[in-house]
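We modelled the chain as a single entity of 129 amino acids. Its sequence is:
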Amino acid sequence: MKKEIANDPRSSISSVHSQQRRSTESWALQDSFIFYCLEQQGPLFTRPSLCLVAALVEANKPEDEANAIIDAIKKLLKDIGVFQNQCVYEDSEVKRIGREWLRSIGRRVRKLLSLCMCKRAITTESVFF
């Protein structure tokens, strides 16, 4: 029985079509599932996108319907990202740490600018003489 299925040309055509469709849907979802992380967090985790692609291919939906599902997933992931950013921006601890960082950077920048101004004054004086 298995040999008959393996030798059936329809199964190989179906397999090729399935692989092409999986590749197309994988590319369509790939950019939505890129979550940038720190180096210490480990490698990129791609299993969710692969599982969604497999589910879409197995559902055997028409291409336009599959594209609508992909677009809905992309929109959902974008909305989740916006919500997370908004929560981070509104967090009082994040704001406090950000202000401290800007103050420390500000001191360094002012110090560097004052050193540059001294050097500029020296070079401009030498030009006039």
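As a brief sanity check on the tokenised model: Confidence is low (pLDDT under 50) at residues 1-13. DSSP finds five helices and no strands in the chain.
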